[in-house]
Specification:
Length: 276
């Protein structure tokens, strides 16, 4: 009767190692597509959120159109007509609202209700979740900007001369404001405080950046130029009203704020509600 000897150290060492499994890229792409679809369905099935996201910019640009239609170039608007000035700036405000304000409030509410905690316990990677949010916000922003541009053309506003510059500015602005939205959501203690915190930051930035009326103060323009909203406004204005292309300085400032928002998000984002 033959006895089975235990494997020696040499035989164990010579056994081939199991190949390391590589992440399934197709699985990650499928999860990303599913997450984007989920965010889109959640948005479109919420009529109140949908209506305010799209109707408010349309109402504002329509009111400005009724006030400034037929007007020519004015020194007050830096040599542009009122509608030439307001069409890109209101488009920029709509992107800010969709990517910063709405995202920060939604994340604070999902954390408070435990949605983020449950998501974090699933196999869904964090990068897939946030990439899905980013793509969703870009889609909403593109629709918002298209609606505002469409209303502007009804008041004889010419279409942009450099669509590539508009596209790059729109995507970079959406990504930067999404990163800032996640960063602000990381600092909000509870969902009840989310709207107040978001508006406390957003309203002053919008007004000092010339979104609703031109700013002629050199000091204020210099300060606002270091913040994210005015560079986004200027980068959107250039292809619309100034026959210019990429505004690299403004895009660099916008990208820097996106990096700051991303760093805050990575260091401070919480999946669980903060205990009171």
């Amino acid at each position: 009767m033959t006895s089975t000897l235990p494997p020696t150290t040499e035989s164990v060492a010579r056994e081939p190692r199991a190949p390391r499994q590589r992440p399934d890229r197709r699985g990650s792409v499928a999860m990303l597509v599913h997450q984007i679809r989920y965010e889109q369905l959640s948005f479109w099935r919420n009529p109140q959120s949908m209506v305010f996201t799209f109707v408010l910019p349309i109402v504002i640009i329509a009111i400005f159109g009724a006030v400034f239609s037929g007007g020519g170039s004015e020194e007050f608007f830096f040599g542009m007509s009122g509608m030439q000035y307001y069409t890109p700036t209101i488009a920029a405000v709509s992107v800010l609202g969709a990517c910063y304000g709405q995202l920060a409030i939604v994340l604070a509410m999902r954390r408070q209700t435990g949605v983020l905690k449950r998501l974090h316990a699933t196999p869904l990677p964090a990068w897939v979740y946030f990439a899905g949010l980013l793509v969703h916000c870009i889609v909403v922003s593109v629709i918002d900007v298209a609606l505002v541009i469409g209303i502007g053309t009804l008041y004889d506003v010419s279409l942009p001369t450099h669509w590539a510059a508009v596209g790059v500015t729109l995507v970079l602005g959406a990504a930067s404001f999404c990163a800032l939205g996640v960063g602000v959501a990381s600092l909000i203690r509870n969902s009840e405080a989310a709207p107040a915190v978001v508006q406390f930051i957003q309203f002053p930035l919008v007004f000092i950046s010339g979104s609703y009326f031109p700013i002629h103060s050199g000091v204020l323009n210099t300060i606002a130029g270091l913040l994210p909203v005015k560079p986004f406004n200027d980068a959107m204005l250039a292809p619309f009203a100034q026959d210019a292309s990429f505004q690299w300085k403004e895009l660099a400032v916008l990208a820097a704020w996106g990096v700051i928002g991303a760093l805050i998000s990575v260091r401070s984002f919480r999946w669980d509600p903060r205990p009171e």
